[in-house]
Amino acid sequence: QVQLVESGGGLVQAGGSLRLSCVASGRTFSSDAMGWFRQAPGKEREFVASISMSGSRAPYGDSVKGRFTISRDNAKNTVYLQMNSVKPEDTAVYYCAAGPSIFGNFGSWGQGTQVTVSS
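Given the sequence above, the corresponding structure tokens read:
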């Protein structure tokens, strides 16, 4: 079982930037696809982005396409989410996840990190 710990959340003004990090341990990092999801109060969990084991493929959710960038550093067992041009509707708890495919079946999850965007 892989353990995931997110960090980097906080309060940011609309139009600003924030970078989230997720460090993995307990399993060979490069054997997992990684993903970022988010959940706002009263809403269902939403797919943000995922990245393949090699980093060569990275689909995005429509609401963040062109503003957010997912990347990974297999040497550091870390996946990142660079958030640019943030909007108040990006406010949510952001979760890191690991699994066998960028398209689903994420079986391991972190505890989440809060991102709040002020207008």
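The mean pLDDT is 96. Try to locate this feature in the token string yourself.
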